[in-house]
Amino acid sequence: MSKSLSKRPPKTASKPSAPKSSAPGAPVQQDPNEAPSIAKPLTRVVAILYDGMLILALLFLVGTMLTVIGTLLTMETGTESSQAQSLPTWYQNLVMTPAFVLTLVAFYGIFWRRGGQTLGMQTWRLKTVNNAGHLLTWGQSFKRILAACLMPLLFGVIGSLIGGSRTIMLTSAFLGLIFNYVFCLFNRRGLAVQDMLSNSITLKMPKVAHEGLWRGFKNRKQNQ
């Protein structure tokens, strides 16, 4: 009597189970192939243009306040436009100009100290740190700002000596700002002028490692 062979279903390869979704708030694993890289000059210029709109608004607010205060303290106010006067030169040079510089330092210093990013830098996932990879101190932030202003100031002085007009001076200063980032194309590591002079660097962060501006503020506050 022949034995009946039971038919067994063919074995099929088991499908790999989908990874379980991590709990909300859990850290996202980063691709080991991804790493922060030195930011490209065009991306950095675009981020500066983003920040420039906010900086201009802040400078306009500070300038308006100081103009009102200076007018009340240093000049007699009239009732007609023909009686309008300019603020004294000493007030513009000793009060308004330092106030503008301090506003610029405070803007970048606060953002760099707290999260390494301004609003414009956050949009393009840029982060500024020192050569050790840490957030900048106030001293390092001030040094970096001065380094970034060096070439615009030098170009502005040269433009003023050549042309003499305010328009030529401002145009030359703008060209000096662009030179900071054109320099990246000729530097072997892709560093800008202010990177080299201040021993700091601006990085392009991977998406998974991008902490975000407000989360960076929060995490830094908790770690203090």
Give a brief outline of the structure.
By secondary structure, the chain is mostly helical.
Oligomer: single chain
Low-pLDDT residue spans: 1-7, 12-30
Strand arrangement, major sheet: 1-3-2
**Alpha carbon gyration radius:** 28 Å
* Main sheet: strands, sense, barrel: 3 strands, antiparallel
Order of helices and strands: EHHHEHHHEH
Shape: globular
Q: DSSP strand (E) fraction?
A: 5-15%
Task: List the defining traits of the structure above.
mainly alpha, three-stranded antiparallel β-sheet, 7 helices, 3 strands, about 5% strand
Write the layout of secondary structure elements.
Layout: E1 37-38, H1 41-74, H2 89-114, H3 119-123, E2 126-130, H4 138-162, H5 166-186, H6 193-198, E3 200-204, H7 213-223
Antiparallel strand pairs: 1-3, 2-3
Helix pairs in contact: 1-2, 1-5, 2-4, 4-5
